[in-house]
Known about the structure:
Component of the large ribosomal subunit. The ribosome is a large ribonucleoprotein complex responsible for the synthesis of proteins in the cell. This protein has helices spanning 3-13, 40-67, and strands at residues 20-25, 28-33. The protein starts with a helix and ends with a helix. A two-stranded antiparallel sheet has the order 1-2. The model has no long low-confidence stretch (mean pLDDT 75). The chain has a single domain, classed as Gyrase A, domain 2. A hairpin with a 2-residue loop joins strand 1 and strand 2. By secondary structure, the protein is α+β, with helices and mostly antiparallel strands. It has two helices and two strands. The relative contact order is 0.15.
Amino acid sequence: MDAANFEQFLQERIKVIGVVTIERSKSKIAVTSEVPFSNRPALQETLKEALNMERNNRYQPLQKHAKM
């Protein structure tokens, strides 16, 4: 997964403007907040969803070929 695409995905999914900032430098992404995160599993769930979407996009051509 490309870091720039993942950064864009996080910016679309995290709806707290001004409180949560997302910064990228090369392949490292930092998510910082002015207030403590109340629910760390929510951030993990967002990451899991992004990885699942990436996996599904990668294997979709194989699935289309298998149905023929």
